[in-house]
Design goal:
4 strands, two-stranded antiparallel sheet, two-stranded antiparallel ribbon, elongated, mainly alpha
């Protein structure tokens, strides 16, 4: 955000027709939404080969290019990347997809390794609220008795789940918060 690294996560991510999604993207989406609302530049860098060091990745690409010198780079990279991801990666590395693998020089290979380890994506917007899995915002927890979930401002008014201003990372935490606050609110409301 604004040239500063805000977070770094390792995990599963998917490319979709609308952009990117998956558990780590859902976790990062809150930060991205706030940055977009504040008109801050937001970029996502994706390491497409996190299990390989820079040197290992360079060796792998060099070995593949040497083994299939006469094939176009776009075809050789099919052993390393999903087919639809190859053109944008080559474009980002300023390599002609039709260029023969054996003609790719060290500088081009360095740019390709850099791209595969730090593929930049600009975050333009979040998905519509109707598609939200978790939302942020709601009744301030400062206005709620945490034991009973009763409003501190209005007697016999109870809150639970995402109506409250609590949210968490993916992984069941939001469900647990909804279940726990719902149980507390229901229990204490029944007693009132």
């Amino acid at each position: 955000i604004d040239g500063q690294k805000d977070a770094s996560l390792f995990g599963e991510m998917l490319f979709a027709h609308f952009g990117v999604t998956g558990p780590i993207i859902l976790t990062l989406s809150r930060r991205a939404a706030f940055a977009l609302a504040e008109k801050k530049f937001t970029e996502l860098e994706i390491n497409l080969k996190p299990a390989l060091s820079e040197e290992q990745l360079d060796n792998r690409i060099r070995r593949d290019f040497e083994a299939e010198r006469k094939k176009a780079a776009v075809n050789v990279l099919a052993r390393l990347l999903p087919k639809k991801l190859i053109p944008p990666c080559l474009d980002n590395a300023y390599i002609d997809p039709a260029k023969k693998a054996g003609n790719i020089d060290r500088e081009e290979r360095r740019r390709l390794v850099e791209t595969l380890r730090r593929l930049p994506l600009t975050v333009k917007k979040t998905r519509p609220i109707a598609e939200a899995i978790v939302t942020a915002g709601g009744v301030s927890v400062k206005e709620i008795n945490p034991k009973t979930m009763e409003s501190k401002l209005v007697k016999n008014l109870y809150f639970a789940g995402e109506v409250t201003d609590i949210d968490a990372n993916t992984g069941g935490f939001n469900l647990q918060a909804a279940f726990s606050t719902g149980h507390a609110a229901g229990f204490w409301a029944a007693l009132s």
